[in-house]
């Protein structure tokens, strides 16, 4: 006789109680003994090497290097078609690529212009973003040297670094962006709304 | 805008003249309502008397319409292949905002067409930075690493094996309404508020995963990363993830839709939409935020003094009337059931007030269901319109006591200096003007 049949023979309340007891007792002891369920497979350092996310400290920046001169070549070949020969951006249909330089000093004006030069607080973000998401038509296709080089080119065109500086894992985190101190914590809920 | 002056062709048996006035006309191309200057082209309303239409609405299949459905057999059971579709008479669709690039763009939920509180998954708003990826769940996994005891990879099967929660929450893009700061711009509530949707989400609490990997001392932020072409990343406070973050694989009773992050996304109740990383493939625990492009260049709020607010994550309390709303026309004086949505990223909706005189006097609205935390609630307000011009507004108060502000109040704090300044987090009271003709339009009152 199956469990189900046996339960059916009892009154409804007894059946409910029996069912409950059957379920609760083993589960309860299991919970008390161990809250970790042991699901998921440990990953190795090698597997984690497939991922990156570069914070302002530069932790995780790969080996390699690049200069603005090399970056100019990378930019013309892989970026200019969308972002423009002069990094001026292009809002044409099908493109919609941001302007990358200029706008410094405009943030408090009536017409703020937000670019990597005028707005971005960290140069490390440039490396991280270009390596992960650009060129838009073929994301993640550049070598680390090419990314370093094109970052150097964008920074140099924006007069953030000198044209002859080399960018690598040591120098990039040291680059001070013009708007480094331009960010403040969220002020909401805004207190004046409670007056 | 000839759209509102061009009524659909008359339909014989629709005696009620209010039909097209109360609701957006069925045959209309919604795109024109939102953005276009309008051409005088007649609306493509098909009366659907007999023959199946060649072009059924998105998500529907077209069938011949019998004169009398009681006099012939309907369609065979199972003829739909086992997955149903909506009626061919239902035409509400998401509309893409005309950004230059279709892969980094957004589409808006047709709020005025929604019934009840949940958004059908197929109408949930979208915002993608690199298009919609196609992901085989058998090849997808979520890696949790960084400041943890044992870094681990969770397959979709692993995630489904863990205890799950099912909760209703809204998601709102922080850019919802960004066109409306300076002047009333988009015509309909789909345009002004359509970056808002509500679903029942199912998944594993982050807290459950945290126990599986073990958290190391000092962890404070978690990077969430998507498996799309943008490899979209945001840093999330660990505290938030431990409080109510969900690794969600279910939406409204089935697998999450591809546009919503299939097979798995992050759900952060009450946080701005872009943090709910879709196609989630990685969570990295750290002591500091990573300062990704999406939390520096974008999704920061530039104030008038040139400084920008960063990590403005909570969505403030907000509400909007969806009926009557922009581009509708009331057929004449009479009683109307004013209705809309209210929500707050900081908890439950406490109450909703409605005004018909541009905020001079307020009346309590009726809430259609018990408010749930970080979830929309539908409100209704029976209004007897005397045919004179009116300005309809709604105002949400959440359980923290926060009262939805006016646009002027927000501008006084955040400044008003150009379209690329503070564009996010507009939660101001919305005004719809009802003219004596019954025409409803978006106004700043």
Mean pLDDT of chain B: 90
Report strand % of chain A. 5-15%
Helical proportion of chain A, percent range: 25-40%
Q: Structurally, how many domains make up the residues of chain A?
A: 2
The gross shape of chain B turns out to be globular
* Biggest sheet: strand arrangement of chain B: 5-4-13-8-9
Radius of gyration of chain A: 29 Å
The total count of strands of chain B amounts to 24
Radius of gyration of chain B: 23 Å
Would you state the CATH class of the domain at 137-309 in chain B? Alpha Beta
Walk me through what this model shows.
The complex is a heterodimer of chains A (195) and B (445). By secondary structure, chain A is mainly alpha-helical. Chain A has 2 domains: 47 residues, no CATH class; 124 residues, Orthogonal Bundle (Cytochrome Bc1 Complex, Chain D, domain 2), CATH 1.10.760. A two-stranded antiparallel sheet of chain A has the order 2-3. The relative contact order of chain A is 0.14. Chain B has 445 residues and is mostly beta strands. Among the domains of chain B are: 173 residues, Sulfite Oxidase, Chain A, domain 2 (Alpha-Beta Complex), CATH 3.90.420.10; 126 residues, Immunoglobulin-like (Sandwich), CATH 2.60.40. In chain B, 10% of the residues lie in helices and 28% in strands. Chain B is built from 7 helices and 24 strands. In chain B, the strands form 6 sheets. A 5-stranded mixed beta sheet of chain B has the order 5-4-13-8-9. In chain B, strands 6, 7, 10, 11 and 12 form a 5-stranded antiparallel beta sheet that branches. A 5-stranded antiparallel beta sheet of chain B has the order 19-18-22-23-24, with no helix packed on it. The radius of gyration of chain B is 23 Å and the shape is globular. The N terminus of chain B is likely disordered. Chains A and B meet through strand 1, helix 6 and strand 4 of A and strand 4, strand 5, helix 5, strand 13 and strand 15 of B. Strand 4 of chain A pairs parallel with strand 15 of chain B, so a sheet runs across the interface.
